[in-house]
Structure formats: C-alpha cells, structure tokens
Amino acid sequence: MLVVIWRDQSTGYATLSTALHTQELSLTQLEHAVWKNRIYHQLLSAYFEDHMVDHQHCTLGRWYFTGEGRRYKHTEAYRSLAAPHRRFHESGLDALRYARQGDHTGQLASLALMEEASVALAKRLDQLMEQAVYEIPMSASHPSPLADAP
C-alpha cells in the first residue's frame, strides 16, 4: 500500500494522500472483474464452483457494510453503490443457477443484467474515488484524508 505524507510549506500541516483509499477502491474494481470472469469460466466449462461470494461478503461488500467505506456514507456516490453492486452479484449467481437448470434464456438474461450492473458499479466506484479526492472535508466527524491535520 502506498501512503504519501507531505508538509505544506505555508502552513506546516501534514497532509495524508488519498492514495490508500483510491487504491482500495481500484482493487475492488479488479476483484469484481475477476469474479465476473469466474462466472463466465464456469458457464463455458460447465464446472460449477461450490461457493461464490455474494455482495455482502466480497471485499467491496465488507468495505461498504462494515469497513472504512462507511466514512463516505454521506456522499451520493456511496449511497448509489448498493443497488448496482447487489444486482451485479445476484445476476451473476442467477446465471449460474439457470445454467445448472439448463435454462439458456434465463442464463443469457442474467448475464445481460450482470454486465449492465457491472458498468453501473464501475461508474459509481469512479465517482466515489473522485469524491474521496476532491470533496473535503467528507464530514465533520470523518474528514477527508486530504484534509490538513495539525
């Protein structure tokens, strides 16, 4: 993890870069791409894994529901993450369920929903990263990592 600390020469305050937070969000985007790839691999190989994590137990879900993500809960980008994230996981898992049942139509419909949710999720994560960098302070009780510290 990269954490950059520098001192503002005019004020003498130390400032912590948001590199840590944006890196964490970038990692969640990568993990969702890998998760989606696993869905397609299972569908193409007809070898189904016993367990695929849902939206609450993946890295982003843990970050969102119980982790550091809650510091951004007052932002629109944070609040708008939940629906596409849930839809992404649920539709991917539905595609696997339909494939096991031999329902090709249901499988394709679920994959289309997963792809749509994937695009929406990526946009929301990008918006959240932008807000984490540029909107300071984030809230009175949880200042942005870019806010000056004494």
Describe this structure in words.
The protein has 150 residues and is mainly alpha-helical. It has one domain. Helix content is 59%, strand content 4%. The chain is built from five helices and two strands. A two-stranded antiparallel ribbon has the order 1-2. β1 and β2 form a beta hairpin. The N terminus and C terminus are likely disordered.
- Summarize model confidence as the mean pLDDT: 80
Please tally the β strands and state the result. Answer: 2
Major pleated sheet: 2 strands, antiparallel
> Termini distance?
24 Å
Helix-strand pattern: EEHHHHH
Give the overall form: elongated
Helix/strand structural class = mainly alpha
Q: What count of structural domains?
A: 1
DSSP strand content:
under 5%
Uncertain runs are 1-8, 10-17, 144-150
* Rg, alpha carbons: 19 Å
Considering DSSP H and I runs of 4 or more, what fraction of the residues is helical? 55-70%
The total of helices stands at 5
Which sequence of strands runs across the widest sheet?
1-2
